[in-house]
Amino acid sequence: MNIDSRMVKQIRDRTGAGIMACKKALQEAEGDFEQAVEILRKEGQAKIAKREGRQAREGLIRMAVAPDGKKAALIELNCETDFVARTDDFAALADWVLGEVMARGDQAAGSPEVEEKIREVAGKTGEKMELSRVLVWEKSGFIGGYLHFNSRVAALVELSENVPSVAREVSMQVAVSAPEYLSEADVPEQVKAKEKEIAAAQFADKPEAVRDKIVEGKWRKRLTELCLLDFPYMREDEISVGEFVRREGGPDLEIADYVRWQLGESGDGE
Hints:
This protein is of the alpha+beta class.
């Protein structure tokens, strides 16, 4: 029997199941709508619609970097429980989606093939699943990346030159330290002014010249908590990340950009 797109849409609207699952059920039911719904319910596919109101806060982050360091991708795939996030099927799904994004770009995220695959695995587990965010990074410099072993934190770093060992170390530093800015130049003036205002208020009884020196010292210290380049290097805290980069890669090596993801951030409005 010929199953047209209108029939597939009707049953999909009713059950929430994937396109291919709906078409297969209609073919098996020889076009009988109610029988097709029953088939999908028995297979667990129709449970998906009931999961739409539930929250998917667990999951995995996946990362890939091209061998030439010019392109990278991050995805966050979510489910409802840590138990499902740790299953082989969910990990395989995350890896497959990452491969599609890396090969086809971020437009792959909304493709019918990806949506169908996610629905298929969701139907087997009984949990809501969603691809909450996707990033494709294409840079003129050299990209390095780090994915924490628990797949809940990942970082990408762009260097001005191809120095893989430094890119790896700095991306790990980003993942661990969660810097707010790359350098002092990136700190908004209002943030800088507020920090100095707070420091000045703490030493209001000091002479102005002394107070100004103290405030500047406090600001320098605060930069080690805000800016990646000023952070103490995680393996040698007597030097900064910026000093480490120049020591290992030469005086011209620079960090051009970075990005850090933590699981669940996209659910908080990122």
